[in-house]
Design brief:
A hairpin with a 2-residue loop joins strand 5 and strand 6. Strands 1, 2, 3, 4, 5, 6, 7, 8, 9, 10 and 11 form an 11-stranded mixed sheet that branches. This protein has helices spanning 31-44, 54-58, 120-129, 142-153, 164-172, and strands at residues 4-11, 49-52, 78-79, 88-92, 104-105, 108-114, 132-135, 157-160, 178-183, 211-220, 226-234. With 235 residues, it is α/β, with parallel strands linked by helices. The protein folds into 2 domains: 1-48 and 156-235, 3-Layer(aba) Sandwich (Dihydrofolate Reductase, subunit A); 52-154, no CATH class.
Length: 235
């Protein structure tokens, strides 16, 4: 058993993910008003957890943990804090080095997915702060992470909110059930800007193979925003 995963992402019309590069609304509306619309749509999804990749999490916790020990941990460790918020925040950290200043992000308890490169003192830091964690043999075992989140943390649905690397990894693993694409009415235009899905694979890999999109709904929102919702089918 695993949670339902909805990739909920806002991009420019050319599919790019860096809001600071997007052109401004034509009518002078502050861009922040459009980002509020994205957040409002996210609430409509009614998931009981939301999830970032490492780069996006670092925007909130830009501190690096400096281990004092080289001793690493064994796979299979799971820590569930004694008290959990109604909604959970999940992040994938392949380097096990984010230094958290709180056990919560935006009021929601943090759960971290790690690999066996995590040091024992890093794990101790998480436990002391009351941050939940899952240690896998390889942090790329996303299917296993989803199973543990469902079975031990009671997570039924996740809003995956990027960035592009974790979106691409989840796509390649066949773990996306829906795509909630919010299109901001602006353009980036730069070839090298990150996009919605950024799978880190070989040139001959096709991370979306065996999957197809069915349009569930399309809606024009405030400020010229488009909201497209798709179901992913396994063929």
């Amino acid at each position: 058993m695993r949670p339902k995963v909805i990739c909920h992402i806002m991009s420019s019309v050319d599919g790019r993910l860096l809001p600071g590069r997007w052109t401004l609304p034509f009518d002078g509306t502050p861009a922040g008003e459009l980002f509020k619309e994205y957040a409002e749509i996210g609430r409509l999804l009614e998931t009981d957890a939301w999830m970032f990749g490492k780069a996006t999490t670092r925007e909130s916790f830009p501190y690096k943990f400096m281990p004092k020990s080289e001793q690493t941990v064994l796979p299979g460790l799971v820590f569930i804090p004694s008290s959990l918020s109604q909604r959970l925040f999940i992040t994938i950290d392949p380097d096990a080095d984010i230094f958290y200043t709180s056990d919560k992000l935006r009021g929601d308890n943090i759960i971290v997915v790690l690999g066996t490169n995590a040091t024992t003192d890093y794990i101790e830091m998480l436990r002391e702060k009351g941050i939940g964690y899952i240690v896998l043999e390889d942090v790329k075992e996303l299917c296993k992470a989803m199973e543990i989140l469902a079975e031990q943390f009671g997570v039924r649905s996740i809003s995956l909110q990027g960035g592009g690397i974790i979106d691409g990894a989840m796509l390649a693993a066949g773990l996306l059930d829906e795509l909630s694409l919010v299109i901001y009415p602006g353009i980036d235009g730069l070839t090298t800007s990150p996009s919605i899905f950024e799978y880190l694979g070989a040139d001959d890999e096709r991370p979306a193979d065996g999957q197809a999109l069915e349009l569930l709904s399309s809606e024009t929102r405030n400020h010229g925003i488009m909201w497209l919702r798709y179901k992913l089918h396994r063929l």
